[in-house]
Amino acid sequence: MDLRTLLPLAALGLGAGLPAGPVAAELTLTPCRLTANPALPSVAAACGQLSVPLDPNDADGPHIELFVARVAALSAEPNPDPVTLLAGGPGQAATDLYPLVRSAFERVRRDRDIILVDQRGTGRSQPLTCTMPEDQDLEIADAETVERVTRQCLAELPVDPRWFTTSIAVTDLDRVRRALNIEQWNVYGASYGTRVAQHFARQYPQHTRAVILDGVVPTSVSLGPQIAHHAEAALQAIFARCGENAGCNDTYGDVNAKFTSLVRRLEESPVTLNLRSPLSGEVNEEIFTELALKAAVRLLTYSPDTAALLPLFIQQAYDGDWNPLAAQAFMVVQQLEDAIAYGMHNSVVCAEDVPFFTELDRQALERTYLGTSQVDALQAICEYWPRGPIDDNFKTPMQSTVPALLLSGEFDPITPPTYGSQAAAAFARHKHVVVPGQGHGMATIGCVPRLMSEFLDELTPETLDIDCVRRQQPAPFFLSPQGPAP
Questions:
Q1: Per-residue DSSP letters for 365-395?
Q2: How confident is the chain (486 residues) per 10-residue block, as mean pLDDT?
Q3: Is the dihedral of CA 432, 436, 439, 441 positive or negative?
Q4: Which of 16, 165, 202, 419 could form a disulfide with 388 if both were Cys (CB 3.0 to 4.6 A apart)?
Q5: What's the number of domains the chain is made of?
Q6: Is residue 41 part of a domain?
Q7: CB–CB of 432/421 below 8 Å?
Q8: 10 Å Cβ neighbour count for 238?
Q9: Looking at the domain assignment, is residue 12 inside a domain?
Q10: End-to-end distance of the chain based on CA atoms, in angstroms?
Q11: What is the CATH classification number for the domain harbouring 438?
């Protein structure tokens, strides 16, 4: 696991709030199509660009273009309050997220437009992308190597990365809102996007009709020190569920012990494999290390569909066939690399998370399967990454009257239900929904799309009927490469 696999993570106080300023230019939208994957259908939309100052304090200085898309409602007379989607990462683009989750918003789109703004630094909004070395593991590299790779990334960026924090991003969002002549909109945020959504609701409550927070990061939480603990808890829950399932337990036995054995084997001797890419079909020689194993396992715990494969993959590797697990590992990491703009990711993390790390309990971290590697790498990178501005109130607990629907997966490995409960306390009117057996990201799960639509129609979260959620079950474990037992 290297810099490229430091995923969804989430200072300077420069005044009570960054200036919104006048809209820099008109926003003209023309027909376009959006796609995040050639294998998926594209989405019809109207797209355009809005020019905004790179430094919000310097309207006469350099500008960047924000990419905006509007997916029209199915109704000929849609409601005046559209929904805007905020993507996770940090570093994912909203126009890449929406095609992947569009089914979750079809009910919402009956009567409301969907507004997509690629947050500055992502997608087609001045992306901060870096060429990362294929073979460099920054989590075990010496300080000189970390400095070299980080400075190389910085040298490739076309603009100053300080101006890509959440505090500035919400001023961009409000500029887009005004350019589209929208008085109020509803804000859906996923993962890191929940941080952006909460801060927008804090800074612009009069223009926020409602928020949906999916995989919630509380405003006061600095992501990093607790990730290894949450990942460990999610993995142990999967192993425990396998142990309690007769078919899984009879087939695989003590999966936890076998996973521990695999880690030790790879620590002693990494495995060289010839892997065929499931995406390109090319065969490449890859070195599979214990860090790659941990990264793969963590990514597989994000969804119950992929978690259902974990006991099978671990058993196959334990028996000497590393290829299925390794192929999955390299595929999901490649997909992540393609989705995340790591320069923007670093700009957010190095301003909003790492400076607020308190004293780390390194012994407790070492007892998790991820250990201290992630926080060590983040701290090393942020020694060199320029720190941008955040609002003075950015880390303080918020109090809001905006209606809120909060969504958590029971076994989320990065934003557990306790985070959702913590964030819910900030909203006078809210409903926190914990979906049994699920991981990270609830929008597409079961009856959740209907709940989101009903919430936005009625704005009475307190009375929202969530009984349907209790019937949701995780995907059954694969007991062979052919699938679950019949």
A1: HHTSSSTTHHHHHHHHHHTTSPP-EE-TTTT
A2: 35 38 70 86 95 95 97 97 96 96 96 98 95 53 74 92 98 98 98 98 98 96 92 96 96 97 95 76 82 88 93 96 86 76 94 92 93 87 95 94 97 96 97 96 96 98 95 93 83
A3: negative
A4: 165
A5: 1
A6: yes
A7: yes
A8: 26
A9: yes
A10: 36
A11: 3.40.50.1820
